[in-house]
Fold this protein.
Amino acid sequence: MEKHARRIGFILLGALLAGAPWAAGAENPSTAVTAAAPADFPLPADRARAARGESMFRIDGGRSEIRIYVYRAGPLAWMGHNHVLSSTDMRGYVALTQALRDARADLYVPVSTLIVDDPNQRRAAGKAFATTPDAAAIAGVRRNMLRARSLDADAFPFVRLNVRIADASLPHVTLAVSLRIRGITRELTVPAEAAISTNEVIVSGNLQIRQSDYGMTPYRVFGGALAVRDSVDVEFRLVAERAAATQPLSH
């Protein structure tokens, strides 16, 4: 009986996805895609620091990574999947001074380069992500992610972060993070670990945010019987390499 109910549930969900306005034409971006930068980037403050000869570190997008874990909810949660959003396209600069409390980072992630349910990311995420969404489901999730009620990628193409060190006892640091999504900024306190050397900065940590805090409406159908949980978990690893003193800051 339970197996039969699950089969019916998947048929219903498949029909829902197939008929939804966001179900097609939203494939994951090619790794060759390069998104534009925010018009004000690099920030004037970072340009000024570089002009003064302060230590500037450029984010290495290929070695940096952000993972966002999105969870199913509701009585019919078994009909859906948990999802992993990931990006290796974080960009920006870290400015270091001898006093760590004066260090800061200005970063952004192009929303259009977020990847939905990369198979390697799902395997690494563990049992809660053991099921495998098909291509149509992944395209539907991505289209839903970009729509106006979610990240609203057309109006707000970037996630922006300004980071300061509130407290440090290396390798442990407490980050004061201004996170801007959809034009809404929230102040967060994030515990993290940092490794700092002459030519490299590595910072890793995790946090939890609520979509509703940033004006997003988590997806729901059947009166909320099948839904996306409001809170999402975020893991990050940021790697920055020293920028050449003679090289001007760029996007």
